[in-house]
């Protein structure tokens, strides 16, 4: 980037002279003066506006939470730990064979998400977190976090319900934030990975074949 590329920014700071490297000191003075005289009143207006909504006190109390909202390039991603923390599994009766299988499936999900976070390209992790949670970032407000859940259900009877088929994919109900996993096709971890990766990466169409 050259000084010519910054022409518009320099002019917006009130500098009216020739824009050349030889005028560097004059340009810097104009920029500093602009920052000292123009920006504080603007920031004060923003603060007053935030105070009307009670956000100024909230930002003072939770600076780390609010910083990603106001600083470009900072965002709290939905990582494996966050996704697992919001998953609410609808388990079968304690001690039953179905319950044991379901717990194995949830262990597979944990291993899969952690493996993906460590080894997969960032774009794949974002696709997965968005598919599971509906968004790629962590809710900021505590009230949002409390109500932000993904229900996990288990289908043990897809063969009986739909006849002979070699594979079927998870079913997603976006309105209720519910994912139904086809247990018979995901009991082994390798099969679990194949089913989920195909669901994520091949058009996200959830079909039976």
UniProtKB/TrEMBL annotation:
<protein>
    <recommendedName>
        <fullName>HECT domain-containing protein</fullName>
    </recommendedName>
</protein>
């Amino acid at each position: 980037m050259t000084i010519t590329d910054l022409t518009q920014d320099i002019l917006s700071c009130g500098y009216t002279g020739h824009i050349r490297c030889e005028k560097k000191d004059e340009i810097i003075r104009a920029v500093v003066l602009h920052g000292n005289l123009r920006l504080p009143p603007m920031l004060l207006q923003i603060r007053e506006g935030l105070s009307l909504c009670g956000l100024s006190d909230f930002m003072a109390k939770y600076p780390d939470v609010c910083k990603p909202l106001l600083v470009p390039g900072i965002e709290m991603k939905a990582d494996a730990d966050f996704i697992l923390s919001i998953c609410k599994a609808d388990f079968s009766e304690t001690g039953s064979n179905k319950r044991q299988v379901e717990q194995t499936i949830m262990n597979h999900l944990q291993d899969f998400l952690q493996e993906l976070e460590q080894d997969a390209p960032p774009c794949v992790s974002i696709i997965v977190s968005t598919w599971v949670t509906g968004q790629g970032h962590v809710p900021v407000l505590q009230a949002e976090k409390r109500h932000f859940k993904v229900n996990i259900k288990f289908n043990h009877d897809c063969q009986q319900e739909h006849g002979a088929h070699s594979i079927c994919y998870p079913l997603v109900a976006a309105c209720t934030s519910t994912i139904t996993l086809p247990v018979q096709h995901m009991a082994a971890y390798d099969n679990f990975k194949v089913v989920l990766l195909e669901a994520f990466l091949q058009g996200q169409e959830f079909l039976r074949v």
